[in-house]
Write a structure and sequence with these properties.
alpha+beta, six-stranded mixed beta sheet, three-stranded antiparallel beta sheet, globular
Amino acid sequence: MADQSHAWLLAPLGMRPVIVAQHAVQQYLTDFHLLAVPFTPAHCSTAIIWQERIVPVLNLGGLAGESYRSGFKLAVLAYQQEPLTPLHYVALAVAEAPERISVADDDVCDPPAEDVELWAILAQTWVKRDNLPTPIISIAKLDSIEFCRYVERVFAALSPAVQATWQQAAATTAVASPSRFSAPARDANSGAVMAAIGSSAAIVQSTIAKPVEPDLGLVSTESRLAQTASKSTSIEDAGAADLDDDEDINSWDDDELDDLDEDGDLEDDDDLDEDD
């Protein structure tokens, strides 16, 4: 039997479930305050303040032709543009709590025939889960110009009634106040979503409220998944290493994960970033 690697299964709004490296998910949020970011695409028109940073929110519900709906949860994801560079963060709208899973080289399978353009951008390899092809994705690609343009094209093709729900959601969300933050200039390595938020006249020039030092203990998901593609799509290289000395969701044992209630939320609104 092939070696098993640990990962997280996410259920993003608007697309099939996806798999990310174990160290990539920083926190699962059930209680947060959205801030509107004017002059940005519909799928990234809001942000949250998380650990003194302004983090863009990606809501991809429109990819499935869905109207905007509230009540979603957020998975805060970390990634690097290149190895040994500062971390960037994005909050992905999800329908339920992340699920800890194991994957192996024996699970590798062919990609499906649908949504070829989308998965050509995001997917690094595919594995069988519950008899269905499931992509292991690059988080950095979620913040790429290529992906942003793809999502904008899909959203532009939505019916006027559906588009109106997204516009209304952005219009009724409180606008972030630039007077609340003091920040350095935006890092040149920031991606399309971060750049869009950084250029908004209603928010500070930077998308991060304080400098983020490189974490030499974290190899980027994109780098690991690139290794997956170049080494016979080896799942072992797809990113199962833990962050050293870092209390994150990966520090939870199975008993603690069982504390998730039947709705997929943590009891008492605890988050996955805290260890008992």
